[in-house]
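Final paragraph of the annual report: two paired records, presented back to back.
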Amino acid sequence: MRLSLRAGERIYINGAVLRVDRKVAIELLNDATFLLESHVLQVEEATTPLRQLYFAAQTMLIDPARTEAAWSLYDGIRDGLLATIRDPALRDGLEAAHGLIEAGRLYEALKQLRGLYPAEAALLSPGDMPVAPVPVLGALARRSRGPERPRERPPSGADIRRPPAARGRPAPQTLPALDPEA
């Protein structure tokens, strides 16, 4: 497999984070576990159920020592998604990603999950889309953040917009269910 990296870009390969100082092409001559910097999801970006699922799968790839905890989180999120999602294409995509993960093909599973983001976004209305980090991922996030990317100043508590309350219920503090009747 041949990978092209830009100057300053980082890549995760077999547990090591590498940064290149110039444009370079890397050819992997044997099986290696890798993840490009642009595909690393930071915990603060895991703001929807599908992105949480991606983060849990990513943790299995980046931090094999935490695979058991990541599997537990992954299974819980996946079960919740399958219990609420009725869209056949999204369900099929989740099953395909799960099959890839069970086969140890985590990179391909992450690619499959990223491809489902637009379908999930179509199910979630803008008012239902949470914008705050999801607390359940906090324990995994401490050690499995992957390569750091330059970030703007994180929002303070006052800057975080919470979803509005609906039908007399208080505004949600965690992710809503994908089933609108839930």
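The closing record of the year follows.
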Amino acid sequence: MKDKYKLIKVGIIGLVAGLCNGLFGSGGGIIVVPAMTYLLDVKEHDAHATAISVILPLSLVSVFVYFKSNHFDWNMVWKVGLGGVIGAGIGAWLLPRIPVKILSKIFAGFMIIAGLRMIF
């Protein structure tokens, strides 16, 4: 019975993350990390690393839909993507080296700033 509820939680987390990714261009980290940590008891570092793997298929689907509807700027993709690839490598290297308490505060800080920017 417990596995059934976990499967339902995982499915709902995936659905909400995919919906947010399609609507806002974000969802993997913002939805998946806290949900996995608090609802599925996944360790913080593991949740962050797993969220990255979840983001890839979500983003590929969103890119396909956006591309077909001409909401796409290839020039910007290459410029921002290059920096993103470098930043992703640095972030993946840093993740296991940052204590959980500090990682949680950094993540919360980014979420607060993003939320405030959306409000104001």
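Residues 2-119 form one domain. This concludes the annual technical report; the extension proposal builds directly on these records.
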